[in-house]
Amino acid sequence: MTLSFAPKDAEAWPLYALEPEDVDVWAAQQNDETQRWLKATGFSGAIGSVVLIPGAGGAPCAAVVGYGTAEQRKRHRFVLAAAVPGLAPGTYRIEQGPSQQDMANECLGWLLCGYSFNRYRDSSRKTARLLAPREIDADRVEIIANAEALTRELVNTPAADMGPEALEFACHKLAGQFGAQINVTTGDALLENNFPMIHAVGRAAAQAPRLIDMRWGKDGPMLTLVGKGVCFDTGGLNLKPGGSMGLMKKDMGGAANVIGLAQMIMALDLPIQLRVLIPAVENSVSSNSFRPQDILTSRKGLTVEINNTDAEGRLVLADALALADEEKPDMIISMATLTGAARVAVGPDLAPFYTDDETLAIELEQSGKREADPLWRMPFWEPYETMIEPGIADLDNAPSGGMAGSITAALFLRRFIDDCPRYAHFDIYSWQPRPAPGRSKGGFGQGPRAILGALGQALDL
């Protein structure tokens, strides 16, 4: 599926996105028939409202959609997208509506309305197309939209067809598209190459665990993305109840998000050296599953007491982060569907992130607002360090008590970063529980657009 604007030479109907206070002003400038039609429909400029203006012969000649008030728009990420399902199939050009500052995001939302998950059932539908406004970078918007579609597709695909092998294949496909180099360490070779925790978590599954290592770009600052690729999480021997296992196909959402972000970076040809590390595993139950009370020795040499096999994501990330840190890149970003505690704290819309770098935190927060990809900074709270120190080993993968679960997980991961000057960790949900304008129910990207928008200043590009 490719999300794109209409061809530049396509015939298009004009579209007017009106705030409530502008409806009467706009109507007064139209002919009598249009004024009567608008009045008869009761159009008020409410978000999501649509009126097709009939022309000669009854065919539409224009469309008027509601853009709401400034206060109402604060409750919506993509306002214009709310009207797209109500528009007749055809092509439209925006004549009035979003400000220049908001135009690119509104156009992105429109394109994302065209995404549907069609792998098992054709649910595609004809949707209204948009001519790219002159004031936006249309190529950039299309690149971002299609990277988001890739992330959604990966998360939406069930584990039967998106296990470690399929996730590796997706990375090979992306690498081939952009001329990136890729190396994969699989099965017992993980032990031989000192990735013991990735091996321990994934060894019980039918498909062997693996570490995917992709590189692209030869010049510029070094950026390493690390994504949690737990393709399905049963909880291991600490088996999840059925209700908690239902969405575990999305436990590779961190990997899906860094893959989408990597596609954006490569397609935009940013002047950086990119590395993507994805520990791809399935946390399963078998005779050789790792056990509660086991003590694992990580790649870094830190020992980890296993107090819950369902806290496996931080284990596979730890080995990958240690590898990333050894190269001393300019920045490391990890992304993972790591804790339920993050969802309790901020819900499904916000992506919590952690960093000790104040400048980077500001850049990410500001970019999140600009790019309609909202973030919320969480603290690396030093007094909680003792909660991840069990006494019998260097670290505890699942502190008892249930308090501050997202923070303690982030503190755990930070222990594996020593030499990178800028590190940020994202504890994302990567799932849209209910459909919203531009956001279909199911997998979706959280954080990549904000990260992309912050890279220029963060890496001094």
UniProtKB/TrEMBL annotation:
Belongs to the peptidase M17 family. This is Leucyl aminopeptidase family protein. GO terms for molecular function: aminopeptidase activity. Keywords: Aminopeptidase, Hydrolase, Manganese, Protease. The keyword Endoplasmic reticulum does not apply. Gene3D superfamilies: Leucine Aminopeptidase, subunit E, domain 1, Zn peptidases. It comes from Thalassococcus lentus. The lineage of its organism: Bacteria, Pseudomonadati, Pseudomonadota, Alphaproteobacteria, Rhodobacterales. Residues 308-315 form the Cytosol aminopeptidase domain. Coiled coil: none annotated. It comes from the Bacteria. The keyword Repeat does not apply. CDD domains: Peptidase_M17.
